[in-house]
Write a structure and sequence with these properties.
Number of helices: 1
CATH architecture of the largest domain: Sandwich
CATH topology of the largest domain: Immunoglobulin-like
Structural class: mainly beta
Strand order of the largest sheet: 2-9-8-4-6
CATH class of the largest domain: Mainly Beta
Helix content: under 10%
Distance between the termini: 97 Å
Strand content: 35-45%
Radius of gyration: 28 Å
Shape: elongated
Order of helices and strands: HEEEEEEEEEEEEEEEEEE
């Protein structure tokens, strides 16, 4: 009888705690030892993948925001956007209101226009409870209308001495490193091209790559002849959008 009474009380407490979650199947009660669940329903959207236009409108509906009715047994939750896949992960472009809550709730997402990234940008809107992700909404937004990818012409030819090091002054003996800045709003890469025979060029070194610059250095030239090579800098999502930097080293 005591066991039956405890079982009935657990069911009553579970039902009382989660009024409004009647449509959850199966029923999960954290207080009874179950797992945390999240379900979208009601009058809100239920999709976990959003396509957003450059201007910040959602999908074919061309709505300026999207609302979720969330049913959950999480006693506390936060809306945490993850921009780690973006070219500029420090730029925040998703707004949520409210950004936190307890148990069942409703939240709305808004998306800023994409004027910064020349590639399609991706983000995740994570619903987090006690440090754990309990649901994720994936977001894909169209690229900015203008793609920036530019190296100033005078930087596209770089000359080095045979030694490849500073030969006088305070930096004498140190490797010469030349920094090439880029004006870019897209993800890009830089590769040292093979020579005319198709062999790898190992005397040109690319380092210090960030989203806005890269560095060039060379090893000492012991061949007795001047030599030339090239570095191709290209947009990751469009290899035809590229810039060639020529590197020359004296004999």
């Amino acid at each position: 009888m005591k066991k039956t009474f405890k079982y009935l009380m657990a069911l009553v407490l579970c039902a009382a705690a989660f009024v409004g979650c009647k449509e959850q199947t199966p029923y999960v009660c954290e207080g009874a030892g179950g797992d945390i669940y999240v379900k979208f329903g009601g009058t809100g959207t239920t999709t976990t993948r959003l396509l957003v236009t450059t201007d910040g409108y959602i999908g074919e509906t061309y709505a300026v925001s999207v609302t979720y009715d969330m049913y959950t047994n999480a006693d506390e939750w936060q809306i945490v956007p993850d921009y780690s896949e973006c070219y500029d992960p420090d730029h925040e472009w998703i707004e949520s209101w409210p950004s936190e809550g307890n148990y069942d709730g409703r939240f709305t997402l808004n998306f800023l226009a994409n004027s910064k990234q020349g590639d399609t940008r991706y983000a995740k809107v994570n619903i987090v409870s006690h440090g754990q992700i309990i649901e994720t909404i994936e977001v894909e937004q169209d690229k900015a209308q203008n793609t920036q990818f530019y190296i100033q012409p005078f930087l596209q030819l770089q000359n080095f001495t045979a030694s490849g090091v500073y030969e006088e002054g305070d930096n004498a003996g140190k490797t010469v490193v030349k920094t090439i800045p880029l004006d870019s709003n897209v993800a890009w890469s830089a590769r040292v091209d093979d020579d005319a025979n198709g062999d790898p060029v190992d005397w040109i070194k690319v380092s210090g790559v960030t989203k806005a610059k890269f560095d060039i250095s060379v090893t000492p030239n012991t061949t007795g002849e001047a030599r030339k090579g090239s570095i191709t800098v290209y947009q990751n999502t469009n290899g035809n959008n590229n810039i060639v930097v020529t590197v020359q080293q004296a004999a």
